[in-house]
Amino acid sequence: MVNDKYSKIKQIKEYALVNKIPIMQDEGLDFLTTFIIKHQIKHVLELGTAIGYSAIMMALCSPDLKITSIERDEKRYLEALKNIKELHLEDRITLIFNDALNVKIDDSFDLIFIDAAKSQNIKFFELFERNLKDNGYIITDNMYFHGLVQKNEKEIVSRNVRGIVKKIKNYIAFLKDNDKYDTTIYDVGDGIAVSSKK
Ligand code: SAM
Asked: Tens digit of pLDDT for each residue in 22-75?
């Protein structure tokens, strides 16, 4: 069973690589799972399931953790469902197939993990912060956007990428100016922002 588990995780990572599906980098994932254990997180809302890799890794790091995760791409959602079922985690990971911006959830969470469309981070934050428990955390991945956020914008050739980088910079400013949260950006993986509710 243990070997089965590791070979399934390896298979999910290979599927992501072959199908060019962006999943969390190992370093970022180590940070996230360590954070979950250290802060005794019990209930996570994830925006951006992709094929379930990060949700599965979070569930495996802590046996009583429950996760709700939202994905808008049907093929990825179906692949995530299959992966979660094969690892027998369907009782602990609930998937929602929809655009997160159209989802209303009543539950409260200790941690909201934002890993969906990078240009919509402010909207996600503002929409779901009402679901955050007192003393909860919002973690956002890809604050460096593959190192492009630290680059001179003029050096970025693609207009589309320049637009995303600009929005990530706006999001960083939004977090820093937000006096309801303390935010630290950690230099791990692709840059991880941890915002703790004051
Ligand atoms: N968290 C995943 C992991 O590490 O295994 C990776 C998520 S991937 C970086 C981002 C995913 O968010 C994509 O699969 C994309 O389809 C999804 N996504 C983007 N915008 C979304 C939205 N508004 N609502 C729901 N899903 C969204």
From this structure: 999 999 999 999 999 999 999 999 999 999 999 999 999 999 999 999 999 999
The listed CATH number (3.40.50.620, 3.40.50.300, 3.40.50.150, 3.20.20.80) that belongs to domain 2-197: 3.40.50.150
Task: Locate the ligand 1 atom nearest the alpha carbon of residue 73 and give its number.
Answer: 16
pLDDT for position 2: 63
Structural element, H or E, at residue 132:
strand 132-140
Q: Are 141 and 95 in contact (CB under 8 A)?
A: no
What residues does ligand 1 touch, defined as CB less than 6 Å away?
A: 22-24, 48, 50, 53-54, 70-73, 76, 99-101, 115-117, 120
**Bridging pattern class, strands 109-114 and 132-140:** parallel
Q: How far is the CA of 192 from the centre of ligand 1 (A)?
A: 16
